[in-house]
Amino acid sequence: MSNSDMKLVVVGAAGRMGQALIRVIHETEGVKLHAAVGREGSAFVGKDAGELAGVGPLGVPVTTDPLQAFLDAEGVLDFTTPATSVAFAGLAAQARIVHVIGTTGCSAADEEKFQAAARHARVVKSGNMSLGVNLLGVLTAQAAKALPASAWDIEIVEMHHKHKVDAPSGTALLLGEAAAKGRGVDLASQSVRVRDGHTGPRPAGTIGFATLRGGSVVGDHSVILAGEGELVTLSHSARDRSIFARGAVTAALWARDKKPGFYSMLDVLGLS
User: Fold this and answer.
1) CB of 208 closer than 8 Å to CB of 202
2) Is 181 an active-site residue?
3) How confident is the model at residue 63 (pLDDT cuts 50, 70, 90)?
4) 136 touches 156 (CB < 8 A)
5) Is 26 noted as a catalytic residue in this protein?
6) Which one from 7, 47, 145, 164 is the annotated catalytic residue?
7) What number of other Cβ atoms are within 10 A of residue 63's Cβ?
8) Strands (E), the chain
9) What's the CA gap between 127 and 103, in Å, rounded?
10) How many CB atoms within 10 Å of residue 179?
11) Is 90 exceeded by the pLDDT of residue 2?
12) Separation CA 14–CA 78 (nearest Å)
């Protein structure tokens, strides 16, 4: 480890993503775990973050004090909850550091607060941090643009593990936004989230979402473009949470020397 390693804080350190982040930081050159933050009252507070993530002791105990954790840090990796991420964005703005946000289920009001924090912090936010999904978004926009909305229907199908609390997934919405952008329409007014009972025929031009939950599925997403007599399906399957963790670390390193601002994974990957 060198002194030039980027000092990263993992928040939500005891969660599934938090542990994946600690493992990826441990095995990635150019970064080191500076601090790990857990929830107030969590059984993991005070325990070694490395032992918690299965990589052996790192000498970084899990703390409940983000203010202390952000001191001297250069970046924060955050896959928590909307309210927690908003609070961390305020601290990241004060500390003028990098804030990588993979939290999903955020409201429009939350998004405004992230934009405000980006006046001082370097915020990278995405509904999905993986390279494959972001490429899928670009392809979805191209396909939606190429296939006329009058004759082609778009449906987005996603499946996740049974513990996921928000629906549709942040990734499904990212893909929906990409499809809407390709068509030059507004997703909010064109999306169909629920179908139940006698719904009548499918309105032309809408973008439909179907949400499946069960088992331990990390994340499966398909964009189905259905025309008369033909189907085009673009899909991505996440087999391991580490793809999101690697994307988040890549985003932090990318943003390290950038100006304060609000960025997405498309900027990080050069796909924007």
Assistant:
1) yes
2) no
3) very high
4) no
5) no
6) 164
7) 18
8) 6-11, 31-37, 62-63, 75-78, 98-101, 122-125, 153-160, 191-192, 207-213, 219-227, 230-238, 261-263
9) 7
10) 27
11) no
12) 12
- The structure tokens listed for 2 are 């060198």
CA–CA gap between residue 233 and residue 215 (Å, rounded): 24
Average pLDDT of every residue of the chain? 96
Amino acid 176 reads: G
Query: Does 1 score more than 70 pLDDT?
Result: no
Q: Residue 87 corresponds to which amino acid?
A: A
Residue whose pair of structure tokens reads 């990212």 in the numeric block: 174
> Which H helix or E strand runs over 114?
helix 108-117
Cα dihedral 78/84/87/91 (nearest 10): -30
pLDDT tens digits, one per residue of 6-61 = 999 999 999 999 999 999 999 999 999 999 999 999 999 999 999 999 999 999 99
List 99, 125, 160, 236, catalytic entry: 160
Give the C-alpha separation, 33 to 58, whole Å.
Answer: 8
pLDDT tens for each residue of 191-211: 999 999 999 999 999 999 999
User: Residue 24: left (phi > 0), alpha (psi -120 to 50), or beta?
Assistant: alpha
Verdict on whether the full-model pTM lies above 0.70: yes
CA dihedral 110, 116, 120, 122 (to 10 degrees): 50
* Residues near 175 by beta carbon (within 8 Å), at least 6 away in sequence: 133, 136, 137, 140, 156, 221, 223
d(CA 272, CA 259): 17
Query: Phi and psi dihedrals of 167, rounded to 5?
Result: -150, 145
Question: Measuring CA to CA, how many Å separate 210 from each of 112, 156, 177, 195?
Answer: 27, 6, 15, 9
